[in-house]
Amino acid sequence: MTEKQAIEAIHALPRLQGAPTLERMRALLAELGNPEKDLKCIHIAGTNGKGTLAAMTASILTHAGYKTGLTISPYVLHFRERFQIDGEMIPPRTLAALTGKVLAACERLQEKGLPCPVEFEAVTAIALLWFAAEKCDLVVLETGLGGRYDATNAIPAPLVAAITKIGLDHTELLGDTFEKIAAEKAGIIKEGCAVVCYPDQPPEAMGPLLAAAAEAHTAIETPELRDIQTLKSRPLQNYIDYGGYRVMLPFPGRHQANHAAMAIEIALLLWRRYGYEIADEAIEAGLREAKMPARIEILRRRPLLLLDGCHNPDGAAALAATLTEAGYEGSLVGVLGLLADKRHEEMLKALSPCFEKVYTVTPDCPRAMAAEELQKEARFHMDAEVGGTVRQAIQKAIRYADDHNLPGVVVCGSLYLAAEARPILLKEAEK
User: Fold this and answer.
1) Is pLDDT above 80 for 108?
2) Of 54, 73, 360, 385, which has the fewest beta carbons less than 10 angstroms from its beta carbon?
3) How many whole angstroms from its chain centre is CA 378?
4) What pTM value is reported for the model?
5) Rounded to a whole number, what is the largest CA-CA distance in the chain?
6) Which residues contact 239 (CB under 8 A, 6 or more apart)?
7) Beta bridge pairs of residue 245
8) How many CB atoms lie within 10 A of CB 343?
């Protein structure tokens, strides 16, 4: 099996199947010899910021000298981004070999009359097999969807469970209130594990999180917002101080300062509670050198080329707040693509103050909102024009910004759009 065949075979598995359950995942892991039992994990759930927090945490642990596995969901540029050890993606041959092993286990389960695991369950099994085979010291696992019934939650109690900001996303699967969604995310909190919470959580979400922590006989560590200091720096830089840790983060935005504070608390808990040696220098270097594409990613400063994978109202609001704080309000040109099942009215309202004009596109996804339909909605909030292909829309946006002496271009609205746009933007940034 080649890498391409492996990825095609994984994508051929069902995306969802029946009522939410961990039974399929547990059966698959048992068939594979329960690799999860050999791993020490930091488990991350939440609506927004999971990937960035996971990347920051893994980077800190790698800089502290620990062999660290990391899962990312979804990927942006390459499927192999989902599986990383010390910042390096899984080798193609290893992915192919482990995929074959997992698919064979899926076939054996079906021969026993058990249901076939779904795509994300197979992906998670591949990651756990690889991390166990490579004898990782620590593993940072990002949930795919929810928490309670997410495939990653088949692991034993993690060392630390972290909950990023709860928002109203995937409401058709997780519930339509902060309380319901928080209750699902809180499913990763297990008996005795340490818990770290986002410092600006919606109040309605805290009840289920506190209840889950109490039931698991543990407490929640939450960074205090007043302790997260933003230090003077250039626009779209993020120089912070938290507890004496002073770092220029690679990710702009106040929300990313909050994630950095969470990552610091995770590192301190691993040291205080479990005895892991994590030097202050490792914490600062890990935060400074963490990498995650399409998270308010600046590909060029002048004129500005910025890419963000925001795909729900909270993400759009965080991007808008960051751009406004940097002084770009109402002066940018946007390339915008959304998925049809997202709360696009709220996203457009959040983003509208940032843009003088936007070009709409259709992301490469079956669930994409057509560019023409998006333009009809967007024009109620801002000057909007159908942009054509992603490449054409980016070129039009850059030309418009040049012709009207505007500071730059922002591409946003979907991680699917980000994956298609990033290589184009990188080439433009080199000009």
Assistant:
1) yes
2) 385
3) 26
4) 0.94
5) 66
6) 230, 231, 232, 233, 246, 247, 248, 249
7) 242
8) 18
